[in-house]
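User: Quick sanity check before I run a bigger batch. Here is a single chain. Can you write out its predicted 3D structure?
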Amino acid sequence: MALFVTDIMVEISGFSFSVPEFWLLIGFGSSFLIQFFYQVLTISFTLSGKKKGKQENSPSVSIIITSRNYEENLRILIPSILEQDYPDFEVVVVDDCSSDGTEWYLTELKLQSNKLKTSRILQETDFPNALAITIGIRAATKDWLVFLNPLCSITGKDWLKSFAEAIRPETEAVLGFVKYSHATGSMRKFFRYENFDSFILYGSASYIGLPMPISDMNIAYKREQFLKRRGFAAVLDTPFSENELYLNKISNKKNTVYLLDPISAIYYDGEMDWYDGINYKKKQLLLRRKFSFGQSIFLWINTISRLVFDISMVTLLFLSPWRIWVAATWLFKIVHELVWGIVGMKRLKERNLFPGLVLLRSFLPLFNGILILNQLITGSKRKWK
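Assistant: Done. Predicted structure follows.
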C-alpha cells in the first residue's frame, strides 16, 4: 500500500519514486550510514583498553574527597580506601563547612592512619566546589590526583591498582566508569542508562580526537600540570563542573584514557529521584555549552541522525512499498547496537540495561529539548546541596 501520490516522479535505474518518498529514503539511508559510522567508533572503543601488563613502578596517587555533612558515608568509604592494595597513596579529605560530626571523625581516624590528610573550610564562598577541590589539591603531595564523592563506594582492595595500571608516561587524564546499580530512587534506572550510554559515546569520540568528560567522580589527572596551568582559573565563570571543564580543557586523543574495566569502576550509592535527574541533565547540558565546536558537532550529528533515522523509518514503514527493505535495515541496526552494547556491558559488568537503553536513545533528544527550553526560560543554576 503506497500512499505517496504526486504528479512528479523521480526515476533512478528503472525505479520510480514520488518526491516525498525519494527524500525520505535519502534521509533514511544517509542517517543509517552516519549511525553506522558511530557504531564503528563504538566497536573500536569497546574492543579497546586491553591491559598491556602491570607496570613495575606504580605512580603515586592522592585520592581527594570533598564533603559537606556526609559523616556516615565517610565512615564507610574512607576505611575501604585506606585498605587498598597499592604501594604509594594518600587520602585527602576536605571538610567543607560540615555541621555534623565529620570533623571529629576525621580527627580520630587520622590518629590511626598516616595515609589520611584533612583540611577544613569554615566559611562559604562564591565558588565552594572549586575552592574545596583546590584546597585538596594543594594539600596533596602525590603525582596523580583521583577524585571521589562521599556517596561512592569502591569495588575492592584492587580498585586503585586497576585504576593506576592504565596510566602511561604520556597519560594526563583518566576517566573511570561510575555504576548506578547501587543507587536508590525513582530515577535510578534513568541514571544507569544515561551514564552507560554517555560513557560509550564519549569514549568512542576519543578515537577521532574528541574525548569528553562524563562525571566529576572516579577521574584523575596530574597534580603538577594542574598547578602549572593555574588550575580552575580558566573555568571559574561557572559555579559547578570545575573538574569536568578542566578535564575537557586538557584532554586529547593521545593523553586521555577511558577505563573499560569493572575493577576500576566505582558505585554511586546515593538517592536518585526526579529532582536529581533534572539537575543532572541541566548540569550536563550546561557543561556541553563549554564543549568545543568539534565536540558539539559530534554530539549534534549523532542526535539529529538518530532522529531522522527513526522518523523516516516509521514513515516509510507505513507509507512506502519499500517497507520490507526499511524493516530489514532497521533490524540490522538494532541487532548491531544490541550486540556491541552487550559487549560493552560485559566489559564493565553491567546488567539488565536492555531494552530500557534502546528506549532512552529514542526519547532522550525530546527530553533534552524540553530541558534546554526550560533552561533558557528560567536561567536557573545548579547549587551545591
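The first helix runs from residue 19 to 46.

User: Great, the batch can go ahead then.
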